[in-house]
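Below is just one:
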Amino acid sequence: MKRIELYIISEILRPFLVVSLILTGLFASFSSARFLAEAVTETLGVAAMIELIFLKTLIALEVLIPISLYVGVIVGLGRLHRDQEIIAIRSVGMSTSHIIKAVLVLSIPVALLSGTISMFGRPWAYERSYIMDARAEAELNTDRFQAGRFYGNEDSGRIVYLQRKDSQSGLMQNVFHYTRDERHSEIVTAREAYRRDIDPNRVPQLHLFDGVIYKFDRGGAEDSTIRFSKLVYQTDTTKELGYRRKAASTLTLLASNQPYDIAELQWRLSRPVAAVLLALIAIPLSRASPRQGRGEKSFTAALVFAIYYNLSGLARTWVEQGTVPAIPGIWWLHGLMLVIVIVVLSGFRGTRRRRS
């Protein structure tokens, strides 16, 4: 590889790494703020929240990495155009083909990394997050509960409230516990309650005293009220998580003929293709004409990415719904994008030849 091509790669690599770090940091910060607002630390603990942030960030990398590469090409080549280094490069016999080659040399390994995350890291991260969500839904970790606050889980519909709590003994007073499922709702109130750990390998028991259980049927036909002097409450953590296509392995998706699984598989396989296509379309977008300001160039680049990304989601939805069959699936969009890239790059090279 020529030294000038290595120089072009280095000019793209620097903004790519910087943008990657910024976007990853912003996403992790946003996730941590959301989890803190939902009181995840008080339900699962700080370590679990950090793991959830890591998992959510890993899932997002399949999108963040192509975005960073796209911006890196625009910023890196844009600086070379702005400082007229491209003119100097062309004066020594370097053509647009050499620039395309340099972009491909960098974008292909980055695309493979994005594809690896999408096909292997992403399903693993979804599986772990589903398990942690199920654990948060099932467990009543009263050790982290504070008096005077409501604790809830959006997926399960559970709400817990305790009016007072002794920090030394863990004794809780005036406890309110609400749960719901598809057919029933249940409210448990108790004058006193405490948690008992009978086995480290089992879910802790919650002992409630002097309370009432209100059970409501959604149809209104089987409502009941039960009073108790003592109730031992233990949640069921053996519930099956069920099949989740986002957490399914790529091999499992390959063996499926269901539209949802096909759409998920094609989405994973298309991530490296999308990364390379975005990097190539960024080459002509990196150069602004003398009458075109930076703001207009940035707007055009953002518009191109937004259209491509939104159409990718729409194409996946059409496959999921059976509107578009497995063939062409979502590949028609990437084929169309490839044609656009070839036409635009050909026109870009032709313009360069006429000017030279």
Summary: Residues 352-356 have pLDDT under 50 and may be disordered.
